Amino acid sequence: MKIFSTPFDKSGVDLLEKLKCKMYKVASFEITDLPLIEEISRTKKPVIISTGMSNLKEIDRAYNLMIKGGTKHIALLYCVSNYPSNINDFSLNNLEIIKKKFKVKIGLSDHTIGSFLSCMSIIKGAEVIEKHICLKNIKSVDSRFSLNENEIANFKKDLDNFYKLIKNNTYLRSKSEMKNKIFRRSIYAISDINPGEKFTKKNIKTFRPDKGLSASFFLKIINKKSPIKISKGKPLNKIGMKGQDTCELFFDNVRVPKENLLGMEGMGFMMLMKELAWERMLVAIICQAGAEAAFAHTVQYTKDRKAFGKPIGTFQNTRFKLAELRTEIDFCRTYLDRCMELQLEESLGVDAAAAAKYKISDMFSKVVDDCLQLHGGYGYMLEYPIARAYIDNRANRIYAGTNEIMKELISRTL
Ligand SMILES: Cc1cc2nc3c(=O)[nH]c(=O)nc-3n(C[C@H](O)[C@H](O)[C@H](O)COP(=O)(O)OP(=O)(O)OC[C@H]3O[C@@H](n4cnc5c(N)ncnc54)[C@H](O)[C@@H]3O)c2cc1C
Q1: H helix count then E strand count, the chain
Q2: What is the maximum alpha-carbon separation in the chain?
Q3: Which residue minimizes the CA distance to atom 40 of ligand 1?
Q4: Hey, which CATH number is domain 181-255, 1.20.1560.10, 3.90.1210.10, 1.10.8.100, 1.10.20.10?
């Protein structure tokens, strides 16, 4: 941090020079004190000049005297010399006018209360901001409009945010909003379209999500002939797992180039069957992790949420329920870890993978259900992770083979 000062006469300048002061400030009330300005300019050090009460002629006089004395770096601060000053007394266009006329760094000497005016001045090109600072428990002439020690950090944060708002000169779109592009529309076939048939408003339509050909091509492809057969299909309307756009895929008249062939022709289903045990293990792993996460959320929730003046986690029912869930989760984890060891040794049996899938997905559903109960009414609200887990977990007992089919597979090995 550079420390500098505002002298009010020649003796002040002399003292500051002895102290090796690196730059100077001219107060609004001294801008017409030309002998003082001449004295400061002799140091040839950077100078900040406040321009409260001054007309352009007065600023010009002080500025030219500084330049004449050899000062190279000057910043002119727009200022209203009332303490505190009122926002209605400002015209921020003054900043642009000063910048245009003097070709210097411009800034604001801000005696208003709060950060609003300083932030707005940044949009107008201010690069230097002056603000008074005073400790909270000290009463002084400027304590009323000064920032206290607790407010400085937020003031700086506000300024930084405003600098960020204007630092780009090119048209900018933030990366973070791009994830929402999925909620735009893309083009879907709403009836089967044969090769050579024209795209019309009757056979194509735009729907969310934007996963295929963007809706922006709609007008371009209308009346163009389809080179291939397209079968209708649209995203399935699931009760949960809304982040995945599950839909049926139709592969009609698709030609696969030789170099893209995986495995042997006609053996696709056999290859898929070989991976089923691993698919079931993946579901088991997802369910185990989900149950552990739901449990951790719930333990925290029962510590935070109070009823009858106590955290709900102190009630015996809550403690016993959490103890039961923890036991079930740990048992499943032990079984899953053993299955993973066998999987890595390539000796995991179909029955063991099926058992892991059905038992752990059942356990996940039970854990989430009990955890939701411990959340009370909040557990039914979608902003709570437990509510989303309640809906999303349900499919685990159905896909990758239903849990009934898993039992069928195990029973066949008996
Ligand atoms: C969210 C989600 C995503 C999916 N993702 C995919 C995917 O990416 N790829 C994919 O190929 N599939 C996917 N599926 C499909 C899923 O694999 C099947 O829904 C599942 O295998 C069950 O088949 P089914 O719907 O035909 O049910 P059905 O076979 O009709 O079963 C209905 C009921 O009958 C029972 N049942 C059926 N046969 C027997 C039997 N022999 N003995 C006892 N009970 C029986 C079942 O257990 C079930 O309770 C997904 C499903 C969902 C819900």
Answers
A1: 13, 9
A2: 106
A3: 405
A4: 3.90.1210.10
CA of 283 to the centre of ligand 1 (A): 14
Distance CA 104, CA 73 (A): 8
Helix (H) or strand (E) holding 137: none
- Tell me the pTM: 0.54
Residue 192: DSSP 8-state: -
Find tokens 């195990």 and name the residue. Answer: 410
Candidate of 402, 404, 405 to mutate for ligand 1, largest count of ligand atoms within 8 Å of Cβ: 402
Predicted pLDDT at 188:
87
Q: Which atom of ligand 1 is nearest to the CA of 402?
A: 47
| Gap from CA of 352 to ligand 1 centroid (Å) | 20
Radius of gyration of the chain (CA): 36
Residue carrying the six token digits 């002629």: 57
Distance CA 386, CA 322 (A): 15
Question: For 271-412, which CATH class?
Answer: mainly alpha
CATH fold of 10-166, please? Answer: TIM Barrel (3.20.20)
Per-residue tokens: 324: 């039961």
User: CB neighbours (10 Å) of residue 112?
Assistant: 20
Percent composition of the chain: helix, strand, coil (DSSP 3-state, to 5): 50, 10, 40
- Interval 77-99: pLDDT, tens: 999 999 999 999 999 999 999 99
Give the number of the atom of ligand 1 that is nearest the alpha carbon of residue 400. Answer: 17
Q: For the chain, which residues make up each domain, given as ranges?
A: 10-166, 181-255, 271-412
Query: Residue type at 220?
Result: K
pLDDT (tens digit per residue) in 240-292: 998 887 877 676 666 777 888 888 888 988 898 888 999 999 999 999 999 99
